[in-house]
Write a structure and sequence with these properties.
The protein is built from eleven helices and 26 strands. The protein is of the alpha/beta class. The strands form six sheets. The protein has a nine-stranded mixed sheet. A nine-stranded mixed sheet has the order 17-16-18-19-26-25-24-21-22, with helices on one face. A two-stranded antiparallel sheet has the order 5-6. Bound molecules: zinc ion (2 copies).
Amino acid sequence: MRRLILILTAAAAAAAQTVPDRFYFAEGKIRVLILTGRNNHDWRATTPYLRNVLELAGQFDVRVTEEPSGLSEETLKPYDVLVANYCGPRWSAQAEKAVEQFVRGGKGLVVVHAASYPFGETAVLSENMGRTTVFQQPWTQWGQMVGAVWSDADPKTGHAQRHAYEVKWRDARHPIAEGLPATFLISDELYHNFRIKPGVHVLASALDSPKIGGNGKDEPLLWTNAYGQGRVFHTALGHDLDAMQTPGFTATYARGVEWAARDRVTLPARIDTDPKSPNAVRVLLVTGGHDHDAMFYTVLDGRRDIRVNVDPQPAAFRNDLRKNYDVLVLYDTIQQDQLPEKHRQNLKDFVESGKGVLVLHHAIVDFGDWEWWWKDVVGGRYLLKAEPPLPASKYLHDVEEVVTPQPGHPISQGLPQMRLFDETYKQVWHAPNVTVLLTTDHATSDRDIGWVSPYQKSRVVYIQPGHGRETCEMPWYRHLVQRAVLWTAGRMDAAKP
Ligand SMILES: [Zn+2]
Ligand SMILES: [Zn+2]
């Protein structure tokens, strides 16, 4: 009996236990919840951008809900600020009450573009700029939070033709504005004739030009509002991705989210959406002599620690490369007689200076007539024709193969087996003392399809897969190539998966 009571007590205690949010959110970051999932605008495209900007800015931990009608006091509890990218029907009574309490109680709300429209006296809008004939009872507290509502009465709230215009600060000393240029340019809709509530603090406005159907007035576009103890930042900007990608939108939006959450702004005046570390590995990607899918250019994208320039050969080698680049990535096809003597010397100087070289896919065909290159540097050679006793190398397109990364080297260590749809090569010569990184059992392929060359003066790697789109878009393949770049640059520490 006693035992049974103990078990029951333990079960009751377990049921009552709450799991701390710190297990799921980054410490010290502003917790943002984006409300979306219904909008007459393209929320499927804009919501990831709104999320990405905040994540790149570095101070935010962002979640998204596409069903805000399911919100409750409980689900909102972990968050500091809500971002509304929503323009659709009303939410549940529970959700609306929870949002009101959230903001009134001292948290933040950011209202983006069409999110000022819903819950008022105007018709509910539908997907793809659609309009319904459905009118709902207004949720008046939303208008109180936003600081404005839309009206169909004269003068009707809306906008003239979308165009490029200048937004200027009316309160350049507000924390959101401070340090930003006095004006910024954007191509966007310019909302006019808002019914603005008393107490709204206008931050920025733009002239609604009568030349294109505007009302000739200076229209408030960015403002702040107080709702209970909470802070609201409203931006009328952000009709689509093109508008959102404007530096003026990006900076004011991210700073507005920070301000609404924390009542202060520490973010810089410009949010870099493709930030590179100052000490990023500088890659020269050499193409030419072999066509390829443009998708290849994205293989090295998305890392702060890799910066890539592309230059086709032979011009790529016209200058001394040692000062400007750390790693040469070859995705080209060229023979020695196609490269002028001076260019050849520049290539040789680079390779002998202790830098990195990554040879990809068809670049194994390079310089089959330059023994120093294929024998000493790459440790491998694709034979365009037989040189007895060596047979000619062969290729086959459209092969589904299993590629196995080999343990024991930082480039391939710990990577999973990959299923690739690629081109295979057979009868490629490689030096007996290479360090094998990748193998396959496919009958149309050599076994060893990736290696580190034994070359001593710099780090040289060959990776055979990489023919087309199907391989280049595979995350583990991209990761493998990125690791190879970092390793050849002597920066493998930065390449944790
Ligand atoms: Zn719009
Ligand atoms: Zn190929």
